[in-house]
């Protein structure tokens, strides 16, 4: 009998051989918070054994893999075992990453160059939204997954809760969407964007394909609809919805102001220590980033300034 029937395995198979004993031992070890190792040759059903341990304990689970290939395989298998539960995929979203560098011997400056996989970025946001939904969730991740993450608290604080028949204000809602890194585009509606037509605001959350249509009457929310992204046909109505931010790295205005001052102070200290060319490049790049942070709230590679935003020394 399950202790907490929150996870439900859907499979034609049942544990056999050594699996029942392994599942019992793993579940007991989880209760006692013990470090455990599950041994088994390839094809012995280790993922199925772990899935049963998850079902037995009913705990939200983080599965960490050392590479994307294995993570994708585990994600696919766990999705099949738990089709009625949340299974998220959270791996590094870079298809290519060339860090910024400078070679003094040859006076060569190499700019940072990255290529982000938009589908994986969407799945990362979806996994985060699943975890914060309060529903039973399994997240499959890689060791490098934490790169480019901000504060979980700030991310949740900047989410937007919209309730039917509540007064939110059209201008206020638009401002909140922009602060949550949603882009306004009245022509092409894609994940992470919103558009406005009269008293109607259409939003596609960055982690979804469905359109959230907010019908306003003055400053009041008259109706919240979930619509098809192509035909815009209404699929259902909801009384409340929570829109999570479109990016992971977010910074509140008061924190941003302190961070900008801290970055400027460090820049003043660092510039005299460098040679002329290095000094010019650092000053030009940092000032550009600061302008972007002050005007838009973020810049490309904002995670490189995380020490200042987090208040670390």
Write a concise synopsis of the structure shown:
The chain is an alpha+beta fold. The protein has helices at 19-31, 46-57, 68-81, 118-132, 152-157, 170-179, 253-270, 276-296, 306-310, and strands spanning 61-65, 86-90, 94-98, 101-103, 108-110, 113-116, 137-142, 160-163, 183-184, 193-197, 200-204, 211-217, 220-227, 234-237, 240-243.
3D structure, described in words:
The protein is of the alpha+beta class and 313 residues long. It is built from nine helices and 15 strands. The strands form five sheets. The protein has a six-stranded mixed β-sheet, covered by helices on one side. Helix 1 packs across helix 2 and helix 7 (253-270) runs antiparallel to helix 8 (276-296). The longest helix has 21 residues, at 276-296.
Please provide the count of β strands.
Answer: 15
Task: Provide the domain count.
Answer: 3
Strand content: 15-25%
CATH topology of the largest domain: Rossmann fold
The structure class reads alpha+beta
Please state the second-level CATH architecture of the largest domain: 3-Layer(aba) Sandwich
Question: What is the H-and-E element order?
Answer: HHEHEEEEEHEHEHEEEEEEEHHH
Spatial ordering of strands, largest sheet: 9-10-11-12-13-14
Spans of at least 5 consecutive residues with low confidence: none
